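<amino_acid_chain>
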Amino acid sequence: RLALPEPGRPRMGVHLARPRGSRRAYNRSSVTRTLRREGLRILEGSRSSLREQISAAAHADLLVGAAGAAMTNSLFASDAAIVSWATHSFRADNVDVWSSIAVVGGNRFHEVVFPDAPASRRRAGTRPYRVDRQQLRRAIVEARRAGVGSSPTAE
């Protein structure tokens, strides 16, 4: 049985962390530290049960993470700000999917796009990349400032 948020109860920010492996950020550790300083709970999907992931999303007022399967948890958020990041090549194929999922529950979608990693033998969407922490932090501040839920749109 899932516990849903109680009205008036404080909600939390959650970072849906990608497991170590493909499509990873070179600076993952420093990104995690930055997000912790912003007050976000770090939740790694591969180490969390489905129930825990759904509950965290349902209680979140802010969900932050790389575009990918974990961001599907935004389906369970309601009246939250969703901040998703992607590289240019990954975004080109997927942005409509994640923005559409985010707004289903009356959420606001904020996107941050980073440059692709230098060419390598890996396919463009699977190369390690660098997250611009200042750009990500600005997106989080803007998402919080904009408020949530009043007019669900993809921004």
User: Anything to note?
Assistant: Helices lie at 28-37, 50-58, 88-103, 133-146. The chain is about 30% helix and 20% strand.
